[in-house]
Amino acid sequence: MYHSGNHLDAWSVGLAMAEMPWSIQYFRDLKNQNQCRIEQGGRLSGTVMVDGEAEDLDLVGIRDHSWGRRDWAFISRYVWILITLEKPVTLNSESFQYLCFTSVRYGTFSRLVSGWISGSNVVRPLVFGTGVKDIAEDGIIPETFDVDCQARGLEPVRLHFKRKNANAVSWMMNKNRFEVNEAFVDVSFQSSSSGVVGGIGMAEFGYNLEQYPR
Predict the structure, then answer these.
(1) If you average pLDDT over residues 127-140, what whole number do you get?
(2) Maximum CA pair distance of the chain?
(3) Which pTM was predicted?
């Protein structure tokens, strides 16, 4: 299970902080916007009843939960993508099947990439990735797009995404000042050691309408 307090890469955060102008207010904002977050890939099994008929389920999925303050007015843009691969991949003699990629432009960071790749007994934080402005500047999920990323101690990988929904599902936050778009995506995971492996995922793009008007 990924826990931001334990797994967020300090070097990557430090580099993102170094790009920002420092002041007393900057560090106050960092403290004020503090959050804690967990994310975990796995399987969901059980039985549902529909009109008296039992249906057994065995599904893959990823759960998440966060604590702390989330000020939507403080966020400019973000991309959050959760991925389950159709089979495990081996990187540096370790097995992985779940991945989360996050890229944000925030009040305290102009460019911050985070996330993780995990398997049954290992979680490695992402230390590098494509910036949010290079994915979709307007906050709308493209029909296809690519993301490059690298986890600590592992080789770089490329992720190719194809949106499954004809149109993303969207909703508004912060009194209609912030738009969130979600869509299911097909994933192509590419690395030098594992080759190409397919997968499925969910992409969520959010953006501040006051900074990026339609």
Answers:
(1) 86
(2) 62
(3) 0.91
